[in-house]
# Entry
Amino acid sequence: MLKVNVMEEKYSDIEQAILSEYKYGFVTDIEADEAPKGLDENTIRFISAKKNEPEWMLQYRLKAYHQWLKMEEPSWANLKYDPIDYQDIIYYSAPKQKKKLNSLDEIDPELRRTFEKLGISLDEQKRLSGVAVDAVIDSVSIATTFKAQLAEQGIIFCSMSEAIQEHPELIKKYLGSVVPVTDNYFAALNAAVFSDGSFVYIPKGVRCPMELSTYFRINAENTGQFERTLIVADEGSYVSYLEGCTAPMRDENQLHAAVVELIAQDHAEIKYSTVQNWYPGDKDGKGGIYNFVTKRGICQGSHSKISWTQVETGSAITWKYPSVILKGDHSVGEFYSVAVTNNHQQADTGTKMQHIGKHTRSRIVSKGISAGFSNNSYRGLVHVSKNATNARNYSQCDSLLIGDKCGAHTFPYIEAKNNTSVVEHEATTSKVGEDQIFYCNQRGIDTETAVALIINGFAKEVMNQLPMEFAIEAQKLLAISLEGSVG
Amino acid sequence: MLRIDNLQAGIEEKQILKGINLDIKPGEVHAIMGPNGSGKSTLASVLAGRQDYEVTGGSVTFEGKDLLELSPEERAGEGVFLSFQYPVEIPGLSTTNFIKTAVNEVRKYRGQEQLDAVSFLKLMKEKMALMEMDQAMLSRSLNEGFSGGEKKRNEIFQMAMLQPKLAILDETDSGLDIDAIRIVANGVNKLRNENNAVLVITHYQRLLDYLVPDFVHVLYKGRIVKSGTKELALELEKKGYDFIKNEIGVEEDV
# Structure
């Protein structure tokens, strides 16, 4: 208790306003079907059997598991945390449902209420206009809305488990094609134990008529969430996809290691937005989600485009670098990021743009906001291969500091192997000033609102990239995440 | 409306205001003049509630309320407006959005309904016409890349939007050419009525050619050493601040 008091004294006036309650921290009381704690071959067989998977999928998992055993946890990130005990995690947990659902009406009312509390309606009538949702709780997908309507245009939007059963040819072709099993420690772990996630396929020439989204929720204790998302946009198609996530407040850290793969064929465009709000831990840094995520897209075809937008406000630790492989000529990769860290949160996030095709272009806009005792790092790599003539990159990394006990760091790496390339990098660091706050106060605006205005102004370029329906939510989220940092 | 009684204040142990007395009634324009370092801007900051300054004695009553007890945003809600000498920039925040937030926060404080987008726009158009503001400036980020004159016009535009009871203009004329001064002063004149008051803080008399004061006070070393009518400002302009020093025989600093 003494420690808490000392901490509070250390916050200056300008930091006091943040200590907000995480409003998604509740737990749903529902019986779960769980794997025993720990990880070995039996765990993987258990998961695969639970999902009634074909043999090839089990083999894929086992291969990944043996690969993972040979790998070491990466330590190069600017992050500090106690070693993770991988034998102390439950790798599969599913809310018990009485029987197979025939329609959305049959969802357990308790789960339905859970998602309603989170602002996600599983009721197609009460939907957010033009948004289809796949709801994932712990290890399984609970419901996917608007499937039938999307199917009319040949669009597949379903849980990964279902895709493995129903569309094995697509899964075999694309799963692991962008992020191979051998890619990195957390990706290998994910490939071994992933339990669900979303699958999207947009056929040739189809423009997806609504936003697709997945809402991830961790509920069970001691459980890791390992979801897998795969989006394939065939020639000339377009899709905008959004993911959101929350978790209960707990004293223990929970592991989330996801893999997302995007494939854009000729003239296709994928827009992928994330609003990440996993439980960040309390103000002394106790608890919270360890978010180790591998996200990568490939612009396979010419004139294709992949755009990542992320608003990262949650998690105790974020390790995440949504990247684009620009393979097709004239392809375009974009990365727009706002990462907020407060209290004792740590984020090491950024992107990789790999220019392989000719006339490829990439744009990176990263906005880091640090408050409290937090540490926020941007890490980015722009790589231009030998044959990537006329590649262009523009990177901009801005950091905003609130208070004087937090840190902002930038690690930009540039590797240009073709002398026709043009790579530009700009970086700024600024502080939320007492003067700015007082100016707002004098106009009748209280300090919390003033901070929200200042940070939303700072992050505007990125927020503008979000789909309309979510931009306002994300703005509020930014403000909430920093509540108590200023007083 | 505003009554300042023996106000003493300073910053980091340094006493700057050494007993200010001032009484402002509705409809009046008061000018405070004085050489650099006399405490003019300190007075403005203390009245607006800037935290860096510590009030060590005296009292300030505004419309019957103890002003010093209120937070800066509460003072704004009560109707105190400060036109800043150096308005700050907030990148990415549009001037319109900022003003809309301010107007609605002040309305909330006063128990009035929030203005919806349509009513706000109507109010803004009306004030823009009055202040001869153009739309382009209001869609830019708050004060970012504004010229000195634009920043000050923006201050007065905010005053028009917030309709304060007491407007404190802190060296609004500094850094402006004569045309800009005239525009800003005319703007303030248009907003004057029998229910509000203006406290002009300035170093030079030239602003007062356009914004004519009912009373002029000379601030020197933290005290109001002489008060008079607008003629006092002209006399100061002609003779310089030395004449005050000689006339009152102020003791030098130890």
Summary: The interface with chain A takes residues 48-52, 71-73, 75-77, 81-82, 84, 87-88, 90-93, 97-99, 101-102, 105-106, 109, 141-142, 158, 162 of chain B (CB under 8 Å).
